[in-house]
């Protein structure tokens, strides 16, 4: 497997949404100097989490090196099931990235 190297440039994020407005994630990213390279809105919320069309799109972008972060407003945006959420985190980590969620208690200006 080829090792990836990343400079100290801005963090590139993919915003993933199922139900919520993308604005909160965009504002949070801008406040923290992250670049949003794509917004993926889930259109197939049923079935196995890792097989969802939106998440497969996110995984493809991460695998291609387009971004290093899956950014979502909450864990529930990714999955209602804790084990499925952890599966998504593991898949993102295999691509060299990480998942960051904004909990409902965070304000737009809070530190990550």
Description:
This protein has 112 residues and is α/β, with parallel strands linked by helices. Helices cover 33% and strands 19% of the residues. The protein has a single domain, classed as 3-Layer(aba) Sandwich (Rossmann fold). The chain has a four-stranded parallel beta sheet with strand order 2-1-3-4, with helices on both faces. The N and C termini lie far apart (30 Å).
Strand content: 15-25%
And the CATH topology? Rossmann fold
The CATH class assignment is: Alpha Beta
Reported CATH architecture: 3-Layer(aba) Sandwich
CATH H level, superfamily name: Resolvase, N-terminal catalytic domain
Average pLDDT metric: 87
Total strand segments: 4
Question: How are the secondary structure elements laid out?
Answer:
Layout: E1 12-17, H1 23-31, E2 35-41, H2 53-63, E3 69-72, H3 75-78, H4 82-94, E4 98-101
Parallel strand pairs: 1-2, 1-3, 3-4
Defining key terms:
single chain; 112 residues; alpha/beta; Rossmann fold; 33% helix
Short description:
The chain has 112 residues and is α/β, with parallel strands linked by helices.
């Amino acid at each position: 497997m080829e090792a990836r190297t990343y400079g100290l440039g801005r963090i590139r994020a993919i915003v993933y949404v199922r139900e919520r407005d993308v604005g909160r994630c965009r504002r949070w990213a801008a406040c923290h100097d992250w670049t949003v390279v794509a917004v993926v809105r889930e259109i197939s919320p049923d079935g196995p989490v890792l097989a969802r069309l939106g998440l497969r799109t996110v995984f493809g972008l991460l695998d291609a090196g387009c971004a290093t972060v899956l950014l979502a407003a909450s864990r529930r945006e990714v999955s209602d099931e804790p084990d499925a959420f952890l599966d998504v985190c593991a898949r993102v980590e295999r691509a060299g990235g990480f998942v960051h969620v904004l909990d409902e208690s965070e304000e737009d200006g809070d530190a990550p």
